[in-house]
Amino acid sequence: MIAYLELFRIPGSKDLCRYMLSMLACSSIIVITTGYPYASLVFLLFLIVFALIYFKPITGIYLLTLLYPIDSIFFNLNLRWPGPIRVYCVEILCIILLMVTILRYLVKYHSIESYSLVAKNNSERWIILFSAVFIVWSIFTVLWSLYLDRALFGWFRFNCIFISISFILIYLDSYENFIKISIFYCFVAFILSFFAIYATFYRFAINYVLLVTPHVSLSMQVSLFNQSGDVRTTVTGMVVGYGLTSKHELAMFLLGGVGFALFLVKHYKSVSIRSVLFFLILLFETVIYRSFTKLSVIGSFLSLVFICIIVTPWRKLIVVILAFFICLNVIAFSFSQLLRPFHIKNTESIERNIEKASANSEYQEGSFLLRMRYWKRAIERIRGSDGIGNGPDSLWSDFSCAPHAHNIILTMASEYGIPAVIFILVALFTIAKETYFQVFRKFRINNNMWFLKIVLVGTTLCALFEYFFDIYIWWQQLWYMLGLLLASLRLGSEGEKTYQR
């Protein structure tokens, strides 16, 4: 968006921004006096967060890192649709990020040359072009959707990923900031791990009514999952908990934590700091095995093998690297058994797990055949729309139990059409091409920045693998990692320096 704003010169932009800020302040006073105390507090919090991010944009990346994995806290918006819409905190944050980006551009708080989305090279130009074309095309898919209001919200929710990527790309502009984000990411991963263990023995779900009118109602739900995306009182203490996020989302985030912890191990030379980081790595892997997220385990193994093959100096060490990976996973699996509830230890056996993994029923939860059933239905939807898409969230009307196709390509083609898939694939191919030229053409094993890029490549590949078998396409993990990867590629000459701590 900023790339297009730079085509215009807006006179009096500072006066315009002062006027807009005054309007926001007046609006807050009006809201406080409406008689909806919860709604007033939420709106005031919105203004406080806006001010914090406006004056210190890196705060926005911290909040994005904190909020996007949390799906146990959300707002229920009921507009008399067939069902309420869940509005997650990260989506509200994206509105703030967009407002901050536009206002900071208008007042020229920083120079346009340093903090703009104008492409610095041909790769970025192509990424911006095809992303913009996708956004324009996706607007048309909303128009022919059967549920226009719901489709419009789904369109905004998916486009939040472009807001996140753009904000990261603009304001994550130094190696030092990458260090700070990596530390904060590991801290958030530790908090999520703690609550995942805690949720095994304690759960809650509290609903706060914020607004009730004849046509609109808004409530906020705060919960601690002891099931994947759900709370069930009867199984408390009997099954593993997930805490603040769902199963696959938790595992993906923790894999990112493993990657960032490894990067920090290389960055810091202190024995005590490295000891803490190795403890975190073991903890994250243990929590992954505690819920036995097969896609995360397989995806991390395949990503590691791919990187070891591509990075020539690591080929001769592939046996050692894979041996370390296997040992780490074996230890994590052993520790995970200590954290599993006694009830599960008595009721689950190796034979039962194998039977579940190889279930031949297409209705067996978690089975591969069930995913194939979703894929088949999505292909039928693609053919039914002649490849132009049925609109955002259109699969919701078909798959009441899982309103997506469990495949990023099929879901996107069904909802946004085959042209949209082509636009996104071209943008991803451009990112892959730039990554190849910067990371894989010349290896700098002892360079911390190069190692960070390798970590981001690995975590992105792990997330992409999961998106091919599960996960909503608007979920932030993949796109968040892509934003970090693009920001690392954009550092240019600064990214070539070797930093020692």
Q: Could you outline the blueprint of secondary structure elements for this entry?
A:
Blueprint: H1 2-5, H2 13-32, H3 37-55, H4 58-67, E1 73-78, E2 85-88, H5 89-107, H6 122-143, H7 148-171, H8 175-198, E3 204-212, E4 217-224, H9 247-267, H10 271-290, H11 294-310, H12 312-315, H13 318-339, H14 342-347, H15 350-357, H16 368-384, H17 408-416, H18 418-440, H19 448-467, H20 477-490
Antiparallel strand pairs: 1-2, 1-4, 3-4
Helix pairs in contact: 2-3, 3-5, 4-5, 4-7, 4-8, 5-7, 6-7, 6-18, 7-20, 8-9, 8-10, 9-10, 9-19, 10-13, 11-13, 11-19, 16-17, 17-18, 19-20
Q: Can you describe what's shown?
A:
Helix content is 64%, strand content 5%. By secondary structure, it is mainly alpha-helical. It has a four-stranded antiparallel beta sheet with strand order 2-1-4-3.
Please identify the structural class as seen in this structure: mainly alpha
Radius of gyration: 23 Å
Helix content: 55-70%
Shape summary: globular
Keyphrases for this structure?
mainly alpha; 501 residues; 20 helices; single chain; 4 strands
Provide a brief overview of the structure:
This protein has 20 helices and four strands.
